[in-house]
Design goal:
- This protein has one domain.
- With 348 residues, the protein is α+β, with helices and mostly antiparallel strands.
- A hairpin with a 5-residue loop joins strand 3 and strand 4.
- Helix 2 crosses helix 4.
- It contains 5 helices and 22 strands.
- The strands form 4 sheets. An 8-stranded antiparallel β-sheet has the order 8-7-5-12-11-10-9-13, sandwiched between helices.
- Helices cover 14% and strands 29% of the residues.
- The chain starts with a strand and ends with a strand.
- InterPro entries: DNase_II.
Length: 348
């Protein structure tokens, strides 16, 4: 996937590769149902121009075993796809009512609801774990996923625009760190199970599941997380008290690189490219795919960025818009609108 704008050279989305995991354990799953250390998914917009105009359900796929973007074997609304295979484990845990697993599903736009909770983080995702390991998915799709009792599905509202998702498999000890990140992001959890065996290790998740009052979060927090197979990921999260553009004020300066950023551009107060600090952030105008098709960034609801210089090879996937109103929301992402970004560095 290449990206560009009027000011910027092309950049490439690159991620590490790593061995597969034992299939019996909770983990991210590829389209064959095999366990993988991580995967990234880019759902294409409905009106992609080029040789392969899609229906808004096709996606590009990459994982720890497949280092190049490939067209998904299935559509994103099918249970055989990577999201369906992965989320299916959570739905199975829900149906079993097991005390050996914990899960949480969150979104600032909840299925079966016609309103947005602006007091929660602007963040979307779900996680499932047992005392051995689990996975965490961060994505950009409103109203997704369905409540477990409704079974797998993909919302019609998520078809028109481009969307992203990243899944990472973690050993159990990493979820105590993820729990700390949840404090700042303040996600709106709408389905959750946290048996007593997990509550001491995940106190913030426990409070979020119970809709209890949270302790005061830090302004922002950076966490280095290790996947089950030893890949390093950085997770940036800010609270509503950090009133600034997270990409410009923090992420780019911390990574010491210029960034090309893609985010939702239908906001009335979208932010322009910013060159005010040492490291700059440029908005992307046009996106090209390996399918010889292109689409304008205004057709994309995903939130991601890549380093401008190919030698840096930073990739950021999250749920943060570059918009004025996002400054007052938490991210992992809410007023807390939440903003969170998962960052990975490719091979050097």
């Amino acid at each position: 996937m290449t990206v560009g704008s009027a000011w910027c050279s092309p950049a490439v989305l690159l991620l590490f590769s790593s061995p597969s995991l034992w299939a019996a354990q909770i983990s991210c799953r590829n389209e064959d149902g095999e366990a993988v250390d991580w995967f990234a998914l880019y759902k294409l917009p409905k009106y992609t121009r080029g040789e392969d105009a899609g229906l808004g359900l096709q996606y590009l796929y990459m994982d720890a075993l497949v280092q190049d973007w490939q067209l998904g074997k299935y559509l994103v609304n099918m249970t055989q796809g990577a999201l369906g295979q992965t989320l299916g484990q959570l739905y199975e845990a829900y149906e079993s009512k097991s005390n050996n697993t914990a899960y949480a599903i969150y979104n600032d736009e909840v299925p079966r609801s016609d309103s947005t909770n602006w007091k929660r983080g602007h963040t979307k995702g779900f996680l499932l774990l047992d005392k051995s390991q689990g996975f965490w998915v961060i994505h950009s799709v409103p109203l997704f996923p369905p409540f477990p009792e409704d079974g797998y599905g993909y919302p019609a509202s998520g078809q028109s625009y481009g969307q992203t998702a990243i899944c990472i498999t973690f050993k159990y000890d990493q979820f105590t760190e993820i729990d700390q990140q949840m404090l700042s992001s303040n996600p709106q959890i709408y389905s959750c199970s946290l048996p007593s065996a997990f509550q001491a290790d995940l106190p913030n998740l426990q409070k979020l599941c119970a809709h209890s009052r949270l302790p005061s979060p830090p302004l922002h927090r950076l966490s280095k997380l290790w996947s089950a197979r030893g890949e390093a990921f950085f997770h940036f999260v800010k609270s509503h008290s950090f009133v600034d553009d997270i990409y410009v004020a923090w992420v780019a300066q911390k990574l010491k690189t210029d960034l090309l950023a893609e985010s939702w551009q239908h906001s009335g107060q979208k932010l322009p490219s910013n060159c005010s600090l040492q490291y700059h952030v440029y908005n992307i105008n046009l996106i090209g795919t390996p399918l010889n098709s292109t689409f304008h960034s205004i057709e994309d609801h995903s939130k991601w960025s890549v380093s401008k210089k190919n030698e840096d090879q930073w990739t950021c996937i999250g749920d943060l818009n570059r918009a004025v109103e996002q400054a007052w929301r938490s991210v992992m992402p809410q007023q807390n609108m939440l903003l969170s970004v998962m960052v990975h560095r490719g091979p050097q």
